Amino acid sequence: MAFIEFKGKQIEIDEDGYIQNLDDWTPELAEYMAQQDGITLTEQHWEVINFLRDYYQKYQIAPMIKILVKEMAKMFGPDKGNTKYLYGLFPDGPAKQACRYAGLPKPTGCV
Amino acid sequence: MAGLPKPEELISKVNLKKMPSKKWMDTLPVEFKPGFYCYGAKGKNLEYVEFPNARDWSPTDPDWKLPEDWKKIVIEGIKQRLERFRTFHVFMDICVRCGACADKCHFFIGTGDPKNMPVLRAELLRSVYRKYFTVGGKLFGRNGGARDLDLDVLKELWYYFYQCTECRRCSLFCPYGIDTAEITIIGRELMNLLGLNTDWISGPVANCYRTGNHLGIEPHTMKSTLEFMCNDIEEITGIKIEPPINRKGAEILFVTPSGDLFADPGIYNAMGYMMLFHEIGLDYTWSTFASEGGNFGFFTSLEMAKRLHTKIYEEAKRLKVKWILGGECGHMWRVWHQYHNTWYGPVDFLEEPVSPITGTKFENAKSNKIVHISEFTADLIRHGVLKFDKSRNDNLIVTFHDSCNTSRGMGLFEEPRYIIKNVCNHFYDMPDETIREQTFCCGGGSGLNAGEIMELRMRGGFPRANAVRYVREKFGVNMLANICAIDRATLPPLMDYWVPGVRVTGVTELVANAMIMKGEKERTMNLRMEPLPGKEEQ
Question: Global pTM?
């Protein structure tokens, strides 16, 4: 099992870098994970991450991209509610990268 | 695709005619190449369904944390299965190594690895069988094609049984009818006895056991997702649909893979189902408990498959439905068509399926009481129940990928094609030797659709992609239709890699796009909310 060393604590991650215990998540950890990828989290990134976390709290799963796009549009306008914008923020894809920073598990199955 | 060589580079190094420099038994230990093996299972997921030897493990760890008597467990496991499955015993004995299967496997074609020839994949296990269960093997050892089971052999078995998608194309060409997929299925069962599962399979299994579906979608999430889809349907058609969920006394229980509730493009298929059922006024219900048609348990052990499958019938009983309608899924139909009746015998609490719209009696579903959505829809079309504006699909030049399980597993060839031809003006089949019962796998079936084995998937999917490229170049095909949720997940990256410009769709999405609904507004968008042909300006 792999770990991230963060603030003197070992945080368990899976092979793709998703944290294993969702309680380990802190905003500072998200910033640290992004830094490792050469990304500085801005307010725009946090809008997405916070939405993902809220959705997860409510539904125990990451939202499908379509829901993410639509809700972003609702909350922040059409400029931010489109996949191009989201990929601009998270080049590896909002489903994978943003969920990883948000501390959500990766979806498995016929997906 | 990140980390992968360019397509031409990937395939140009494959040489199917090269003779290996060593005899196959001398090639151990097997090299675990990144991109060719899945991550090991998490202990918590194995524990959840009481699988043996639950612990976190990784295939590349030198120590697989096996029980001390692992060898005895495997040999005893083989013995039990030889006694239980006559087929397995016969398949272990009768192969004459004629090689007819060798170049029929998509993984051999795409990797050139001799151990991906079905004959040799099976031989990996046969050699162990001979050693412990045949006189010849016991007496002559290696000269009799037998070898000891040691740790290196175990690792080799694991590596190659997880490089087979159980598609059964090889068995079609075997003069003896040896079903190598069955050998893989049993091989994986043996691995399961030692807790050697993959993360991508055991995660969904644990999820499904807990929540009723692979993705772990809980009831309120499923409800909100279906409602979200219905909002989109209203925006596109002007028609408001209330999705029926867990409704007791409905005539029909509808079951489909949970991928269609989450992933693009499956979600458009789920919208399509609801539009179709609304249009014909079907008395049906979704279930949040039987919320998965697929069965990843089938990729671990038959017992686990049965445990997951049972919930669908328990739910059918609880909701007091008359029969079950199944969505577009691949291996779900293999389980249903080839295992269900052996497990349970005819179901006595449901009725023989009759279409409430056309009165058609589905004779083929007499014993297990489940009808395939393509049979159901084709019957509706045949009776003229549905009205279509095919021109809404005029921007699409469509070909159809037969899913391994619905084609070789249940012989469903004509219905999807009949449907597509009725809702699209442009349809072209791929070459004969790559479709229907000879179809090529998507490269990611049987739980091999994990992200970490993208190279294996691109190689294994090459023969399928190559046939798509042929019809793309010849007829301009730009849409690959299918009736399987794993296809809808695996084919988009496969197309992006080998045949850019070809997109992927379920068949029901095409139906719903073309279907003229009573009271609909003038449609300007398809289900993906892209402008319909001729409506681009509006």
Answer: 0.96
